[in-house]
Design a protein that fits this description.
It is a single chain. This protein is α/β, with parallel strands linked by helices and 369 residues long. The protein is 28% helix and 26% strand. The chain folds into two domains: 166 residues, FAD/NAD(P)-binding domain (3-Layer(bba) Sandwich), CATH 3.50.50.60; 141 residues, D-Amino Acid Oxidase, subunit A, domain 2 (D-Amino Acid Oxidase, Chain A, domain 2), CATH 3.30.9.10. It contains eight helices and 18 strands. Helix 1 runs parallel beside helix 6, helix 1 packs across helix 8 and helix 3 packs across helix 8. The longest helix is centred in the first third of the chain and has 24 residues. Flavin-adenine dinucleotide binds next to helix 1, helix 2, strand 12 and strand 16.
């Protein structure tokens, strides 16, 4: 006999595990499904940067406020996960820079600093001498945007810790791939995998694979966008640092530097390509010219879930009762994992949400017909 759950979360990656943990914390009976295969989940590939001031596409991008809340939430989670299960998610917040290597980037980044300071965000402009003094290994930068609250986590440790804590709080991890959503009238009734799992509510958090589920009421505007990465030994003196440049970034962690990343619409082809690596190394060796002489030790890739407007889908399906979306987090799903879990718990409970206005993330924005 199959017993039902109050909620089934489809996916146990960065977003699904965070949702399952928060929902279990609220006393609901929760299961989360994940086949745990290595076919390109984004969390296995991610750099783990927490960079809301930098990962903005335009002035007044709603991702910035959500991202700042996400970073604050991860700081809380880091403590809670340490207390509850002794997990170290590798959180550090020693700042992130975006260096300008030409006049156009300098103009754009200086304007970004001015605008973000008006929004009370803590960002500064470092001129060329200040940037060089801080990072002697930096290439010929004209200056840099500096976000001192930026930092990173270890995405794999974060997801494993969220999963373990969700289970400690009573959630059941079902090691299976969901294939279909079953509805009964105007409500969800169950999730199908190898077995049928009855559920009162279903949260879709299967990353780039979210739209492949059968039985969804409408097509999901979330596509896989491949990101490629590479690792090299850290050049002397680089230490812990995160610096963005033109089309690439560099993350220095102890004795290794990781560089990334591409944004390619290549379907579900999770592979590392010569063209992708060429773009990454062109950008990364502008940031740190010493990298060009070092051996590449590892390469890998993953598939980000990217929505049609680049913003996540957070909230209820407009017509099918009990169906919720927590997907489409694109380049920022590690940063947004903890806050997404909180928001989904609050939305399912009909409570006020910590971010009051979620209209920019309303899944119904794509479905005007
Ligand atoms: C190269 C790269 C670098 C990145 N760097 C950063 C960064 O520095 N900072 C940041 O914030 N974000 C970064 N990201 C983005 C971040 O990794 C994603 O936004 C985030 O992982 C999305 O979380 P998710 O749970 O929605 O999807 P995923 O992490 O992809 O997880 C989806 C999960 O769903 C499971 N699944 C799939 N299909 C099914 C199914 N049918 N049934 C059940 N389970 C299923 C998968 O096994 C997987 O575990 C990066 C991504 C890439 C690829």
């Amino acid at each position: 006999m199959t017993t039902g759950h109050d909620v089934i979360v489809v996916g146990g990656g960065a977003i699904g595990a965070a949702c399952a943990r928060e929902l279990a914390r609220s006393g609901r009976s929760v299961a989360f499904m994940d086949p745990d295969s290595d076919d390109g989940p984004a969390w296995r590939a991610a750099a783990g940067m927490l960079a809301p001031e930098i990962e903005t596409r335009e002035t007044d991008d709603p991702i910035v406020a959500l991202g700042v809340a996400g970073r604050d939430r991860l700081a809380v989670l880091a403590e809670r996960l340490k207390e509850s299960i002794g997990a170290d998610i590798g959180l550090w917040q020693e700042g992130i820079a975006h260096a300008a290597f030409d006049e156009a980037d300098e103009t754009r980044l200086r304007a970004q600093v001015a605008h973000q300071r008006q929004q009370s965000l803590h960002v500064d402009w470092l001129d060329a001498e200040e940037a060089k003094a801080r990072w002697p290994w930096l290439g010929p930068a004209r200056g840099a945007l500096w976000a001192p609250a930026g930092g990173g986590v270890d995405p794999q440790r974060l997801v494993q810790a969220l999963r373990a804590d969700a289970v400690r709080l009573g959630a059941t991890l079902i090691p299976d791939r969901a294939t279909a959503i079953e509805r009964h009238g105007d409500r969800v009734a169950a999730v199908h995998g190898k077995a049928r799992h009855p559920a009162g509510d279903v949260v879709i958090a299967a990353g780039a694979w979210s739209g492949l589920l059968e039985g969804l009421p409408r097509p999901l505007a979330v596509a896989p966008v491949r990101g490629e990465m590479a690792a090299l030994p850290a050049p002397a003196g680089i230490g812990r640092a995160i610096v963005y440049g033109k089309g690439a970034y560099l993350v220095g962690r102890d004795d290794e530097v990781t560089v990334g990343s591409t944004m390619d619409y290549a379907g579900f082809r999770n592979e590392v390509t010569a063209a992708g690596l060429a773009r990454i190394f062109a950008g990364a060796s502008q940031i740190c010219p010493a990298l060009a002489r070092l051996p590449v030790t590892r390469t890998w890739s993953g598939l980000r879930p990217v929505s049609a407007d680049g913003l996540p889908l957070l909230g209820a399906d407009p017509s099918l009762g009990g169906l919720w979306y927590a997907t489409g987090h694109g380049r920022n799903g590690i940063l947004l994992s903890g806050i997404t879990g909180v928001l989904i718990r609050q939305l399912l409970g009909g409570e006020p949400t910590v971010i009051e206005d979620l209209s920019a993330f309303d899944p119904g924005r794509f479905w005007q017909w």
